[in-house]
UniProtKB/TrEMBL annotation:
Organism the protein comes from: Roseibium limicola
Residues covered by the Nitroreductase domain: 8-148
PANTHER family: NAD(P)H NITROREDUCTASE YDJA-RELATED (PTHR43821)
Protein name in UniProt: Putative NAD(P)H nitroreductase
Pfam family for this entry, one: Nitroreductase
Length: 172
């Protein structure tokens, strides 16, 4: 994907869709962080620093991957899960709502004419990277949705055969 990314109006529509998902108990167990413009280069420098400190950016190629991680798309949206223990609503249901939010964001991006990709990668699971990217105590990233102008038609890969994943319930 390439420039341009969605402007404020499109991004607002996409995030409205992302926040319009089934949400048992109206807990809003998700929030969104936007990364765009020069901030993406700043992030790359810091991710490289974190990766080097952990010994995971030894080669020039790995260094370049870290530096350019957030410049692969004009706009990146971090979807933060705020799922937490609740007296009535299981964490599992809250996490499913966060997943639905990510998927709505991907679908809304497509509906607005943009390409997108939902990625986790190491930055989702590394405490230092996640904190730097904005996750607060008790939060975690469900993923980062990279959004930009499509440069090619979506590549379709083989999907599961419905016969293998669909069954009709019968007693016993
Ligand atoms: C929670 C989650 C995390 C993902 N993280 C990655 C990732 O880190 N790297 C990756 O190549 N694909 C990742 N994917 C898969 C992509 O989002 C996407 O499914 C894949 O690029 C192929 O797209 P398609 O399934 O629409 O063909 C992730 C998917 C989900 C649901």
């Amino acid at each position: 994907m390439c420039e341009p990314g969605p402007g404020d109006a499109d991004l607002n529509d996409m995030l409205t869709a992302a926040a319009r998902v089934p949400d048992h108990g109206k807990l809003a167990p998700w929030r969104f962080i936007i990364y765009r413009g020069d901030a993406r280069q700043v992030i790359g420098q810091k991710l490289l620093e974190i990766a080097e400190a952990k010994g995971t950016a030894g080669s020039e190629a790995q260094r370049e991957v870290e530096l350019s991680r957030f410049t692969r798309a004009p706009v990146v949206v971090g979807v933060v899960s705020k799922a937490a223990l609740h007296p009535k609503i299981p964490v599992w249901e809250q996490e499913l709502s966060v997943g639905a939010s990510c998927m709505n964001l991907v679908s809304a991006a497509a509906a607005c004419g943009f390409a997108s990709q939902w990625l986790s990668e190491w930055v989702c699971f590394d405490d230092d990277a996640a904190a730097y990217l904005g996750a607060q105590e008790g939060e975690r990233f469900a993923g980062f949705v990279y959004i930009g102008t499509p440069t090619q038609a979506p590549f379709e890969r083989p999907r599961p055969n419905l016969d293998d994943i669909v069954s009709e319930w019968k007693e016993g």
